[in-house]
What does this fold into?
Amino acid sequence: MRVLQIGHSPDADDLFMYYAIAFGWVSHENIAFHNLALDIQTLNQKALQGTLDISAISFSVYPLLFQEQCLLRTGVSFGKGYGPKLIKKKGKSLKRNFKVALSGAHTTNAMLFKIAYPNARIVYKNFLDIENAVLSGEVDAGVLIHESILQYDENLEIEREICEIWCALNKQDLPLPLGGMCIRRSLPLSVAIICEQMLTKAVKIALENKSLLSKMLEERNLIRVDSNQLETYLNLYANEDSISLSQTQLNAINALFKIGYDYKIYTQILSVEDCLIPLEYADFRNS
It folds into this structure.
């Protein structure tokens, strides 16, 4: 039995898409997973370091690690007219060099924010601490992610949606690429293909058994929102579009990579099609 280390965030969509495996609904005779729930910036850092076999990541970090990691087609989260929110205290005017709290240097929202607000003074915090940092006056503004976008203090208001920045930069009607998954290239290709199949099946089964799985996650206190908010959040980020990358989603990722190159965040332009596991290997191997 090969046991692989897999990292995902503790937010509801990642838990929902993975836990069909944790609950034993999806399994394999030769492969098992040991899962770790970590905040997205820690996952990005671990992916850069190659310390996990499989990890959830921000799409924006992938060009920095593509030589060591392949992208998986499944477990993806996109924003279609919604996503992270730049918030501030109601009535507050932000100066050009306002102080802002972001959830991590390698997150997609951080990349887009830094392009739109090059003079902002950035501090990085755990995403759970950003709202209080704004309320306390420690920072002038903050970017809320995950379930925090659903409900926040009544003394706060939205300054700008990150998806607005995305739309202005890509100039196309494309969804905002937020989170995906990667797998170490050093794993045998046959193992990587099986892992992608298992994770894809887990997302499918989760969606087919949405009510039951949601109830089980709630009963085990694995999520931070109530049942109504969970339903809303899963509809946004863990849905039919999360099962496997579509051509529109591939186009969106390529647009993100090009924006990063144009703004000198990346040293070369990647084509996402070249970053995926070559599934034809399985057919060739078994032919």
